[in-house]
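Support request, priority: normal
Reporter: lab tech (M.K.)
Component: structure prediction queue

Hi team, I submitted a job for Polyphosphate kinase from Alkalibacterium kapii yesterday, and the status page still shows it as pending. I've pasted the exact input below so you can check whether something in the sequence is tripping the parser. The sequence length should be 708 residues. Please let me know if I need to resubmit or if it's stuck on your end.
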Amino acid sequence: MPIRKHSLENPDYYQNRELSWLDFNARVIEEADDRNNPLFEQLKFLAIGSSNLDEFYKVRVAGLQDQQKMGVNELDTKKQWSPKKQLQEITKKNLKQVKRQYALFEKKKEALEKHAVTFTRIGALPEHDRKYAENLFKTDIAPAITPYGIDAYRPFPHLSDGVLHLFVKLKKSDSTFIAIVPVPKRLDRILSVKKANEIQLLFSEDMIQSFLSDFFKGYDVSYSFTFRITRNADLEIQEEGAEDLLSAIEDYLEKRKNGRAVRLEIEQPATDHSIEKDIAYLKKELAIKQRDIYILNGPLDLTCLHEVVDILKSTGLNLSFESFTPFYPTLYSKHSVYNLARKNDLFFYHPFDSFQPIIQFIEQAVSDKRTIAIKQTLYRVSQDSPLVSALERAARKGIQVTVLVELKARFDEANNVHWAKKLEEAGAHILYGVKGLKTHTKATLVIKKEPAGFVRYAHLGTGNYNEQTALLYTDMGIITADKKITQDIFDFFNYLSGYSDQPDYHYLHVSPFDIRDAFIENIEKEISLHKQYGNGHIIAKMNSLTDKKMLLKLYEASQAGVRIELIVRGICCLVPGIEGVSENITVRSIVGRFLEHSRVYYFYHNGAANLYLSSADMMTRNMIKRVEIAFPVLDNNLKRYILSILKLYLYDNVKAWNLTHDGLYTKTALNGLRPVHAQEVLMQLKQKTSNGTDSFLHRFCEHVFWRK
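Reply from support: The job had stalled in the queue. We restarted it manually and it finished. Here are the results:
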């Protein structure tokens, strides 16, 4: 008998958002122990795990700390935990994960030694090499170092976010002194000593420690250790009353530099000296709690492993993935994107498909005298974006260019301010988004005056207009000339640029609220049809699943017997496999060479399937706090093709992790089956495709993997 609906409020049926994120980062870190990944890629995954954790502390942990500090005792909507309880559980889990990360780092060091690469210290170098390193220090490091003594006339210095610092204990006569030495971020973190048959790597902070006495003449250096702080970046942008949002963003960026310290990392010193009093001193000066202090058995900030890989590649050592060139059909070099789009909708799955046709979509519009207007949303773009350059040229040529530049894209604010100013100078009309909301949608509209009259063309996608991340993230998009969809996009941009109530769209679902309402409506329809035909089926692929209303509706569908297959890369607050609640739901996470970033939502509807692509995850912030678009795939051939891709991911048994009913992720076992690595299959198939179609992928999936 199905469990009663009111019992779905049981906290045991949910996972905490923050702990689920930590589980995701653990899966990233575990890629460093996957033999399917070459050694350099394993090092990169350790680095990515560190950068992920930095952002997590700057934003998520900082927000919880603020709540606790202000006495806000609001419970999270799933586990019913207070901010204090969440912070305690985060520390407990993260301590284990950081320990695992550093254990893997030691393992990778051993693997590098097999390739004649060693991490070393100056004291361990032979005399000749030590002299070379000393000269390197004097020319490349010492001139940039500024030590800060601390006393009545020299207060405790400002410590920049993410910067390495040396805590130095000095002695003169019978007195002790404290100094802090920042390691400038613009210095190379890793220095190499190359020999005929060996490469030795040194950390810049270790080199500085070896020569500290050069900076403190007349004092004895008793000991030193490296530390690093993370600062709160979860500051609120004050939009209310801001006459110029551009200036408000610039002020916000300045304030963020001085955010409160939220984490202190200390490298365990090699010396026998006790540093407990020094830690207590830093703890007091930084006003930080004991639970947010991490003493690590290895170098701080493992993002430096990116630098290690670059150095080793420059020596000719190559232990990376084989290069992959995205598929670029010859018809895009022979025909205009617009001519092709007039015949059929064009579908792209990056990075397996080239991003070049998306660039062509803008560049060809700029060079066409019939182009009247170009409208585009920009959320995260590259520093040398060819798309923005094309928009600048369009504006200078007199084409009406309207660009929504989302200034509130976290950690990309400065880059977006730069582009907003450049585009405005070129004559483009710039929108800064919608008050109180982030505009996260990915949409472009081109309007042309053709012989038959005005014609509109649109590109809609799940990922950013960024040609660099399009090589690293999996994202889907469509270029279409469909009259109703392009009318919807036209109305959408006019809604953003003018004064209007939310339009009545033919096909689009636009957040805030409408995407969630549409998905709930589709789930309810699936439940209803399942009761009639017994074949209910939902497949959804996304980055994160956190929205309580969506969770409840998915549980309701499972209780009704609908089969639900979820592919959730990151946070998942749903627990599958609970009897009477979610036994018809499976959840898997794919962490691989490319960051899974596409959002796809499929509802079977007794064969009359609805399939949506979207910029939105099933997260509350996407559903009610952002401007997002979910758009249907109308072409049945494309619909079947995208479903083939989803099926392929559901059969991945190389990179997939399965979420169990007890909230743990387990790596998928082969169990005697042939290995299926979805991303590898897609790369191989794209390399084999020569005629500009992808029918082979459909046939491959249909005959080899599809369940009947």
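The first strand starts at residue 117 and ends at 119. Residues 436 and 660 are 38 Å apart (CA to CA). Let us know if anything else looks off. Ticket resolved.
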